[in-house]
Amino acid sequence: MTPSAPSSTAMLARLVAHRTVSSDSNLALIDDVRRYLESYGVASRLVPNADGTKANLVATIGPAVAGGAVLSGHTDVVPVEGQPWATDPFALVERDGRLYGRGSSDMKGFIACALAAVPALVHAKLQRPIHLCLSYDEEIGCFGAPHAIELFGRELPQAALCIVGEPTMMRVVVGHKSSWVNRVAIVGREAHSSAPHLGANAIVYMGRFLAFLDALQAELRAKGSADAVPGVSFDPPWTTLGIGLIHGGTAANIVARECALTWEFRALPGANTEAIYAQAAAKIAELDAAIKKEAPEASVSMTRYAAIPGLKPEIDGPAAKLALALTGANRTETVAFGTEAGQFQAAGISTVICGPGDIAVAHKTDEYTTRDQLAQCDAFIAKLADWASRPA
User: Is 77 within 8 Å of 110 (Cβ atoms)?
Assistant: First the structure.
């Protein structure tokens, strides 16, 4: 007997209950979704990470032909530690017309709508497939999605377009900046603070690199218009640098032996990202040579932790045209945050971002979405099913 179809709100409560912080496994959620799909006769396949602690899930509803649409969403959420939530962040709570819970907006709301639509999609006479793609580790570098994207055109029919359901208030987004995350490690030589000339202070050298980044940001801001894409605007309209994490030293009376920094830059589509990285690498080499003069065993190094491609605007692309038609909107937008959309685009799949919820409340205390946002997404996916039911 086929189970009754759940509402998107009920499905969201089910998803929020899974604690899928990026530092933890997402397998309990993936197994739950897999069993749910099986109850409607939908087969799925898992694409695990290297150690098997996390997995992507990919499922296809409809005929195994090219030209379908992908509904893509990440299952991981950001941590809640240190945030004074009014209620349990992993239990969906409705209060004052809002649905509170970690991931309710970013981005389990979209996944909930896609899963709630499964019974209707199964019974629809689809002429083109709708693929579900749920990924892991988006929040820490979009590491999971590429392994699922590889299936399209290889083991699965090539999709024509992709909708990434990040929270955009159901507006159609056609572009975002690329994101490059880098780690700098400086190892100097410790000494008593009364004799600093006997050591090599890693924090001091990191300060010089921070000064370099500050100057580089000013340079990138000044030339922002040169990297802009005609007819497309970003906020802010320049390539930005971010300094997110720094740690160094052990005590006030010890010359610091180590200092580590995590920094990123988010580049406009027209920016030369390799040139930006090369400038930073040249500064690292300069600092490495300088610190070795004080302490031959010392070092300054930089590694690239993550590289997330930007989404290049394709205002007249298949995904943008369809999304505009389904939402009734008459214009497209861009966003500052990164997604796996650029990874789908790089694989030859026309991609836009469109999903329920507001990015302004994502990652924050008492993150929420609304029933109205879920209803708009439900209607969007129902119209997508109508599109997929028509001959290609």
Answer: no
